[in-house]
Amino acid sequence: MYRRFMKRGLDFVLSLAGILVLSPVLLVLAVMVRCKLGSPVLFRQERPGKDEKIFTLCKFRTMTDKKDKEGKLLPDSERLTKFGRLLRATSLDELPELFNILKGDMSIIGPRPLLVSYLPYYTEEERLRHHVRPGLTGLAQVSGRNYIDWDKRMEKDVEYVKNLSFAMDVKVLWMTVKTVLGHSDEVAEDTNAVEGNFAQIRQKRLEETGKLK
């Protein structure tokens, strides 16, 4: 009952309430991003959602468009400003995803939507992560995301899907609030930063063993 009906209803109500309550914050952040980082204010990227349907994820941008003498974008580390790092550390860059949730592309709680290029490299078990809508936060994110490897992160996503319930969502939401307010590194965006690109890792594994896992 919760998985099929109540979860989506709660997502709609809570995301709409969040947008209305946080609208002044969203407006101020949009102005600050425009002044400090440039235009466009929003970073948009295609991600796979429920049933691997592609949607456009929206976040506040956290990097500038600085380029080298040849017109190529500088490395991410050089384009990520102090303000951009602050947005990421506080997860404020994620707030526009409330509109993705309102629309139905995402849920408040669920496996984080990863890159489209990762799709060919999931095992059949890991593909279960796409049986539900991707989330603003998820079990993997509050389980030490930047301190666990890709395999364990995928295990946490599958664990969430298999045990999805109202109690599970409340648990993940509470853990998210604690880690964000505590400025914990457990809620950081990218496992790539620690272990490397998921697709490249799995491709190498295929070449060496002929198996994804």
Helix content: 40-55%
Strand content: 5-15%
Radius of gyration: 18 Å
* Number of E-state strands: 4
**Which stretches are poorly predicted, pLDDT < 50 over at least 5 residues?**
185-189
Outline the biggest β-sheet. Answer: 2 strands, antiparallel
Tertiary shape: globular
What is the overall pLDDT average? 88
Structural class: mainly alpha
List keywords for this structure.
single chain, 213 residues, mainly alpha, two-stranded antiparallel ribbon, two-stranded parallel sheet, 8 helices, 4 strands, 9% strand
Describe this structure in words.
By secondary structure, the chain is mainly alpha-helical. The chain has one domain (2-209). Helices cover 47% and strands 9% of the residues. It is built from 8 helices and 4 strands, in the order αββαααββαααα. It has helices spanning 2-37, 76-79, 82-89, 97-103, 150-162, 166-181, 192-195, 198-209; strands at 42-48, 54-60, 107-109, 135-137. The strands form 2 sheets. The protein has a two-stranded antiparallel sheet with strand order 1-2. A two-stranded parallel sheet has the order 3-4. Strand 1 and strand 2 (54-60) form a beta hairpin. Helix 1 (2-37) packs antiparallel against helix 4. The relative contact order is 0.13. The model is unreliable at 185-189 (pLDDT under 50).
SSE arrangement:
Layout (H helix, E strand, L loop, with lengths): L1 H36 L4 E7 L5 E7 L15 H4 L2 H8 L7 H7 L3 E3 L25 E3 L12 H13 L3 H16 L10 H4 L2 H12 L4
Parallel strand pairs: 3-4
Antiparallel strand pairs: 1-2
